[in-house]
Design brief:
CATH class of one domain: Alpha Beta
Shape: globular
Distance between the termini: 22 Å
Low-confidence stretches: 225-235
CATH topology of one domain: Rossmann fold
Strand order of the largest sheet: 5-6-7-3-8-9
CATH superfamily of one domain: P-loop containing nucleotide triphosphate hydrolases
Number of strands: 9
Oligomer: single chain
CATH architecture of one domain: 3-Layer(aba) Sandwich
Mean pLDDT: 85
Number of helices: 8
Helix content: 25-40%
Length: 235
């Protein structure tokens, strides 16, 4: 029933212009509590810009309305430079801790042993480091998590465990997720809604009826670079 739906985000007629270049135009969509919205599009389509705009870090025209009191966590595409900083995991997570959760609990939440807290972050594999970034995003107990290609730079086996972790976190915490990915299997397995974006909205809706060959052709032209692997649970 409509009155039972808890709207988390309402975006209306969003436009973003950076350095005199129109990056996003005429974009409107809504997200309800517990929804998983996946954003698809070619390189340069404005996907990362959209997430950064939703976080309030870029100027825009139009309306972005988050439900009052919504707590947001963000996992960027990659942070290669930070692995060169001489910090232990405890030091890194302690920057975000704010007394909310002990570091050991933060690590357990993403499937890592608390014993790893003293290890330098530069010594972790790409998949483990991504889990640490997710722990960072979870530190303030968010209602919504934004992921910019959460498995970028992670090997195939690591990708599966990261997406399994996202599935688990969503179930356990009733999280609302917005994520960017190029993995078609993940889109079908995790998403309730897909937004096809190429500087403007191309298509939007449930994955199965939305991701038709015709719509993918409209979105990517002749270079459809989505790939599949068929393991892992469904949310």
């Amino acid at each position: 029933m409509a009155h039972d739906i808890k709207r988390v985000l309402d975006v209306s007629k969003l436009e973003v212009t950076l350095d005199d270049e129109r990056i996003l135009t005429d974009l409107s969509f809504t997200i309800d509590e517990g929804e998983v919205l996946t954003i698809l599009g070619p390189n340069g389509a404005g996907k990362t810009v959209l997430l950064r705009t939703l976080l309030g870090t870029l100027p825009y025209k139009g309306e972005i309305t988050w439900r009052e009191g919504t707590r947001i966590g963000y996992v960027p595409q990659r942070l290669p430079y930070i692995k060169n900083i001489p910090l232990s995991v405890a030091d890194f997570l302690g920057l975000k801790q704010n007394g909310v959760s002990p570091v050991g609990d933060m690590l357990r939440a993403v499937g890592l042993s608390p014993e790893l807290s003293k290890k330098p972050i530069g010594e972790f594999s790409s998949g483990q480091f991504q889990r640490i970034l997710i722990a960072w995003a979870l530190a303030n107990d968010p209602d919504v998590l934004l992921f910019d290609e959460p498995t970028a730079g992670v090997d195939i086996g690591g990708e599966e465990t990261i997406y399994e972790l996202l599935s688990q976190l969503k179930r356990e915490r009733n999280l609302t997720l917005l994520l960017i990915t190029h993995d078609l299997a993940v889109v079908h397995r995790l998403s309730s809604t897909v937004l096809c974006l190429n500087n403007h909205p191309v298509c939007m809706g449930p994955p199965l009826p939305t991701l038709t060959p015709e719509n993918l052709q409209r979105l990517y032209g002749t270079e459809v670079r989505l790939y599949e692997h068929k393991h892992g649970p469904k949310v």
